[in-house]
Design goal:
Helix content: over 70%
Number of strands: 0
Largest sheet: none
Shape: rod-shaped
Number of domains: 1
CATH architecture: Up-down Bundle
Number of helices: 6
Radius of gyration: 24 Å
Order of helices and strands: HHHHHH
Low-confidence stretches: none
Oligomer: single chain
CATH topology: de novo design (two linked rop proteins)
Amino acid sequence: MKGLYIFLGIVVLLVFMGGCSYNGMNRSRVEVDHKWADVQSAYQRRSDLIPNLVESVKGEANFEKSTLTDVIQARASATSIKIDPKDLTPEKLQQFQASQGQLSAALGRLMVVSEQYPQLKANAAFQGLRDELAGTENRINTSRRDFNAAVTDFNTQVTSFPKNILAGMFGFKEKAMFQAEAGAQSAPKVKF
């Protein structure tokens, strides 16, 4: 009889520990989803600023149309990619990151070309949008860093013993993180 009580006590303890582990992993998954929503919100803010930025630049009569076209196309490409936070695979996140990188590059070219137009640089609306865009890029960076921290915590939980056993049973899988762009480790070359 004493052996039955010990066995039941061990079973109850294992169920309790398993429930706590499951709740911890679920809490981490919800945090990852929340941080992903923050990332998407920051990117959406940037995307929302672009039409106003393009319109303010269009006012400059001889501005390079190809640069504006590149920005518009890159925005369309970046906003067409939607990722479900429950399915954050490395491939999908890389595709999302690549499209956002193309948009960043197009916006960078727009800013460089705009320096050649003194009237545009003096335009208060353009300056305001440019400042907002710079602030938004900072928000994107912060959101990505927070997202990676939440994913690191989640991945640590679902890959650590003994939680990895429960993670496998309940379908918790590792999530992908943002990676540095190719060539980001090299400093840009500045020529005067």
